[in-house]
Amino acid sequence: MIVFELICPEHHRFEGWFASSDDFQSQKTGGLLTCPNCGNSAINKLPTAKLAKSDFTAIDAGSRRTTGSGSSAATPSAMPTAEQLHKVIDYFLANSENVGNQFADEARRIHREEVSARNIRGVATREETEELIDEGVPIMPLPVPPQGEWH
Ligand SMILES: [Zn+2]
């Protein structure tokens, strides 16, 4: 999943959760994306995805499948609650390979299909995260607690 900041022609900003960039495009093309404030369907995404405040961000990348419910609804009401987000994070921690600070390189290799697609997690700097997003690599910044607090 990836979260985009979206904006309508009336400059209302909102967030949409998508399985991938392609998912955003297909929902937009299909007219499924509308502004929650004015209903306008001429939605554009802002150039940078939302980032966590920390300089170091744990990210998920490389998954070709949608996790969990497979929901790709873009309406704000479909945005995950904190509890749902924790479940997503727990799922990733249990079902992903920790590549540590190799995250950016590995995410690129997966994106270019140089290695087999799989869920990975790790850390990346804010700059690396922005580069990956610019390159269209499907990543998702997650607020993951320190390793000692994982269960
Ligand atoms: Zn609007």
List keywords for this structure.
151 residues; alpha+beta; 2 domains; three-stranded antiparallel beta sheet; 4 helices; 7 strands; binds zinc ion
Looking at the structure, what is the overall shape?
globular
The helical percent reads 25-40%
Q: Pairing-aware structural class of the strands and helices?
A: alpha+beta
| Distinct helical segment count | 4
Unreliable stretches (pLDDT < 50, length at least 5) are 49-59, 61-75
How many beta-strand runs?
Answer: 7
Q: How much of the polypeptide forms β-strand, as a percent range? A: 15-25%
Can you walk me through this structure?
With 151 residues, this protein is of the alpha+beta class. It has two domains: 2-45, no CATH class; 56-146, no CATH class. The protein contains four helices and seven strands. The strands form two sheets. Strands 5-6-4-7 form a four-stranded mixed β-sheet. The radius of gyration is 15 Å and the shape is globular. The protein starts with a strand and ends in a 9-residue tail after the last strand. The structure holds zinc ion (ZN). Zinc ion binds at residues 8, 10, 12, 35, 37-38, 40.
